[in-house]
Amino acid sequence: GAVVSQHPSRVICKSGTSVKIECRSLDFQATTMFWYRQFPKQSLMLMATSNEGSKATYEQGVEKDKFLINHASLTLSTLTVTSAHPEDSSFYICSAITSLGNEQFFGPGTRLTVL
Amino acid sequence: GNSVTQMEGPVTLSEEAFLTINCTYTATGYPSLFWYVQYPGEGLQLLLKATKADDKGSNKGFEATYRKETTSFHLEKGSVQVSDSAVYFCARMNSGGYQKVTFGIGTKLQVIP
To answer: Which of A81, A108, B15, B106 sits in a 20 to 30 Å window from A6, CA-based?
Structure first.
């Protein structure tokens, strides 16, 4: 099946710094990728929809200037958490849709800890 | 709007017990339905799916049937194993491609020997 990777798998950073998370579709082209956030013992919350070559669409309540998304190619989307704070600590998961558009494939997630 | 209601856990079962995790969905449009599994510290993996009414998804001994009349997609397994311990998410996606997926809250399953 389709494989999606994320890098890094874990990152610890100081408050005020920026962190970039990469999401790659390894064996297929993904015109659309999604970014989710998962708090402990909770479900996934969709943050934004990332479309190759265009601006991301953010869900209500998600700060687009804080969570910068770039989808520069058909196999790569990046999420940058700018000026990170401890409350941004979370598990970030990306997913990608194949050209059929009928199933999402998820990355393994990135654990962000902001000190 | 679109939503998925899933029974809250945690669910604790003995090995070889029968498992049911209930899930209902809003009937807007003609959604595809999914069960995802998340093992500790990992991302989500697709467990099974069904794309239309009366379809049965199955994988690794797990089954779920798309019931339009009751808007349900309950997950079942006849005999659970310790290795099945994980969090299970029910989800829906509208048809038409490139649609957002709406997840249930997730049900934690713990299987004890």
So the answer is: B106
